[in-house]
Write a structure and sequence with these properties.
Blueprint (H helix, E strand, L loop, with lengths): L8 H18 L9 H16 L1 H6 L3 H14 L4 H17 L8 H31 L5 H24 L3 H21 L3
Length: 191
């Protein structure tokens, strides 16, 4: 387990709220595992975080642990389509987390902390989705079109959230990644 750090109560509460919603969604095991060691590591890190959410929120390496889990969700799955669906569900769950309405300064800080963690996981999930898409062997032009129609709104939502947070570097990165993904799907999905 990583070293704990002193975290303000508002940030701790915000992190616990987000982790309590998203970790169960990330805890679903793939039907077919392509990498047993990676899947075992993913499950171990998840179990560590889920054992005590408040301790997890204090971890110095919480960002690295979440990045490992999201990346392994995509890489350990033997079926990239399943990984894509799982990551889309993660993003859907993230967007459904109710944010506090800020009536006071501490509540405003908690809301901003929640938004930051949600956005971080959302961007990681979008990048993992792009990698999963690259692994899919397309069977038809229609499949490429369906995947494009699925991925574009997900990325657009992440881009909107980054834009609202004034994270211009993230907006540019997500737009560039989306352009590459769409171009790849168009090229590989040609009839």
């Amino acid at each position: 387990m990583a070293v704990d750090i002193r975290v303000p109560t508002y940030a701790l509460d915000a992190s616990v709220d987000v982790l309590s919603v998203i970790l169960p969604e990330l805890d679903r095991a793939p039907a077919v595992s392509a990498d047993a060691a990676l899947e075992a590591n993913r499950r171990r890190v998840l179990a560590d975080l889920q054992a005590d959410l408040r301790a997890a929120a204090r971890r110095v390496d919480l960002d690295e642990a979440i990045a490992l889990i999201v990346d392994a969700t995509q890489r350990a799955s033997g079926d990239p389509r399943q990984a894509l669906q799982r990551l889309a569900r993660v993003i859907t769950k993230l967007r459904a987390i109710p944010l506090n309405t800020a009536a006071s300064i501490p509540e405003l800080r908690e809301t901003r902390s929640q938004e930051s963690l949600i956005h971080y996981i959302e961007v990681l999930s979008c990048a993992a989705m792009a990698r999963a898409l690259a692994r899919i062997d397309l069977t038809s032009h229609n499949e490429a079109t369906r995947l494009r129609q699925t991925i574009v709104p997900i990325f657009d939502g992440a881009i909107d959230r980054a834009s609202n947070a004034r994270a211009e570097d993230v907006v540019r990165s997500l737009r560039s990644l989306l352009a590459v993904v769409v171009r790849d799907l168009l090229e590989r999905g040609r009839p």
